[in-house]
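Quick start: read one record
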Amino acid sequence: MDYEVTLSLSARRDLEDVVRYISADAPERAIEFGRFLISSVKSLAQFPEKGRVVPEFGNSVIREIVVRSYRVIYRVNHESRKIEVIRFWHGRRGMPDFPDE
């Protein structure tokens, strides 16, 4: 049985910001890239530990995959079989922060 993958409020905002930023130059490309990011996180449903532990936190439930220039940071809950995507964070922005939600 696959894990349920959800996007936190901060991840949804990040995704909107990414698409908005790219759309200033290339609207079609922006939507395509947003869909690409979403399809990348869907693969976590079958492979929840696909990503590495986020080095800045060293917590085995906070993991990340790298999708092009973006760190997709997510939390794994094995008991409830859920994955929550926390952030879509551009690699040049330094260490990701985690807003309280």
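The chain has a mean pLDDT of 92.
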